[in-house]
Design goal:
The chain is of the alpha+beta class. The protein has helices at 37-43, 97-106, 200-203, 206-221, 227-238, 242-247, 249-261, 274-288, 294-303, 305-318, and strands at 7-8, 11-12, 14-17, 29-31, 50-58, 67-78, 84-89, 114-121, 126-136, 145-154, 161-169, 174-177, 185-188. It has ten helices and 13 strands. β9 (126-136) and β10 (145-154) form a beta hairpin. The mean pLDDT is 88.
């Protein structure tokens, strides 16, 4: 498929809150405000469970040949299609797709949050859900930022279980982790059993963390940046030899987004500010950086090099 969202029996394993707006890929099932969690689980295709079995192999092509086991290794597979998800240690602690949504039933609703999206990618090897914390406008009333709590994990060892605060800029759907201050994310490796109650202290800081982050963004929106200074900062963020960075397609695109082409780039508090350069980097990482597909770019922007680039941009610009 051209996208990494899982499709099983003709259904895309993704659901989203309709009032939050349609996703960029236009796929999945829209959910009404206040829809029950069980309806979300069905719409997101996350009703299946992860099963595990010992890894075995034949000693020859003879059907009667004995099967030997791979020590300390298990294969994880889907309960519905029996499709393999990954080979892991026998000590690997599984987090079920349903557990991700149950987290929001048991924990998130205590903080007044509502599910906003849930789904799986790579055939179910990774899955996640988000809930909205709130919304604010750091630069102008037309430049809205939504704050979200993201819970993500994997069934192939590629991701730890992580609870992270993140934001989405409404005008362009750019994402940016709340990567300032303490307790911005909580990671639990698959060597440890997932315990939702351990997240309660983290959850209690959600609204305060979002308000503090919006204050940071307001600081950026009030910091003017001339183009030459913005170019120097962009080189610092991207790293490497000055001349080579300036000649790169990525640098040229970021500066184009900063000066004129970025969505919302001409808004008050955005144009010619540190907030504008922040948005240039987030839009570049989320929508323009070279990738095998738009979906690979999405994975990178949330969990890979794209996320790291956005974090570096925020770090450098907040230090200005």
């Amino acid at each position: 498929m051209s996208h990494e969202l899982t499709e099983t029996n003709g259904q895309i394993e993704f659901a989203y809150l309709e009032s939050d707006g349609a996703p960029w890929h236009g796929l999945g099932q829209g959910m009404a405000d206040g829809a029950p969690l069980d309806a979300w689980k069905k719409a997101a295709g996350m009703e299946w469970a992860i099963r595990r079995a010992k890894v075995r192999y034949p000693t020859s092509f003879d059907p009667s040949a004995p099967m030997l086991e791979v020590p300390d290794s298990h294969v994880l597979f889907r309960s519905d299609t029996h499709a393999p998800l990954g080979v892991v240690s026998d000590k690997y602690k599984v987090v079920q797709p349903g557990d991700v949504l149950e987290f929001f039933r048991d924990i998130a609703h205590e903080g007044g949050l509502e599910l906003s999206a849930a789904g799986t990618i790579y055939g179910g090897k990774r899955f996640w859900a988000t809930a909205k914390i709130g919304e604010a406008s750091p630069a102008s009333l037309r430049d809205k930022i939504g704050g979200y709590l993201l819970l993500s994990t994997s069934a192939d060892g590629s991701l730890a279980t992580e609870v992270r605060r993140t934001t989405v800029r409404v005008v362009c759907r750019n994402t940016l982790a709340m990567a300032r201050g303490e307790a911005t994310s909580l990671r639990i490796t698959h060597r440890t059993k997932w315990d939702p109650t351990s997240v309660k202290a983290f959850m209690g800081l959600n609204r305060a963390a979002f308000d503090a982050f919006i204050h940071d963004l307001e600081t950026l929106a009030n910091k003017d940046l001339k183009v030459d200074h913005a170019e120097e900062l962009a080189v610092q963020i991207m790293g490497g030899d000055n001349d080579k960075v300036r000649a790169s397609a990525g640098f040229v695109k970021v500066m184009d987004l900063f000066t004129k082409a970025g969505l919302g780039a001409k808004e008050d508090g955005v144009y010619g500010t540190a907030w504008g350069l922040t948005n240039a980097f987030t839009e570049y990482a989320d929508h323009h950086v070279r990738a095998r597909s738009a979906e690979n770019r999405m994975v990178s922007s949330q969990w890979g090099p794209g996320a790291q680039l956005k974090a570096k941009a925020l770090e450098v610009l907040m230090a200005v």
